[in-house]
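so my prof wants the structure for this chain in the tokens format not the other one, which i didnt know existed until like an hour ago. anyway here's the sequence
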Amino acid sequence: QVQPVESGGGLVQAGGSLRLSCAASALTFSNYAMGWFRQTPGKDREFVAAVSRSGGNTRYTDSVKGRFTISRDNAKNTVWLQMNSLKLDDTAVYYCALASASWFIVPITTPAYNYWGQGTQVTVSS
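here's what i got, hopefully its the right format
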């Protein structure tokens, strides 16, 4: 069974940085676009960032542009989310997800994603 596994969450002060990792096995990693989503209690899961199968195309939600960077290494079956200049509003559970997609496509909606990790908590304190 495909089960992406996130790591790297934790507690950080506002202005600090964290790097999330997501590893996926039991599949051909390069066949999937990769995305990061986040969710806070009482709210819908929201798109954060995604990268195409090729790694050459990326998309970000406006609130993280210039602060977060998504990248992937198909040889390592891993995707990362580098988060800098963290803000209180970035506090959430962050989920990694995989989407079947064409080589250059970057899906940004939750229904496009086939497999989801269990999430990792990111807490930004003042």
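also thought this was worth mentioning. The CA atoms of residues 9 and 122 lie 5 Å apart.
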